[in-house]
Design goal:
The chain has one domain. The protein is 0% helix and 41% strand. The protein binds zinc ion.
């Protein structure tokens, strides 16, 4: 289980569109756009899941960045 983290997009803090929560876990998911699984021609997206309500936000890969918390 990953620790929820703060995310940003284009330098703006990401907040959940449903509950306005500010922490998320991220994973990469594959969309079967070619009709064939594991063909290498499918699209990958970043799925960012709200740690409060579970709503999944999808982004083109590489757009969402983790905000480094000050130590
Ligand atoms: Zn939420």
């Amino acid at each position: 289980m990953k620790t929820p983290e703060r995310m940003q997009v284009e330098g703006r803090a990401l907040s959940c569109v449903v509950c306005e929560g500010g922490t998320f876990t991220r994973r990469t998911i594959t969309l079967i756009t070619s009709g064939v699984a594991n063909s290498g021609f499918n699209k990958e997206v970043d799925a960012v899941t709200c740690s409060s309500c579970g709503y999944i936000h999808q982004f083109v890969r590489g757009v969402v960045q983790t905000v480094e918390e000050p130590a």
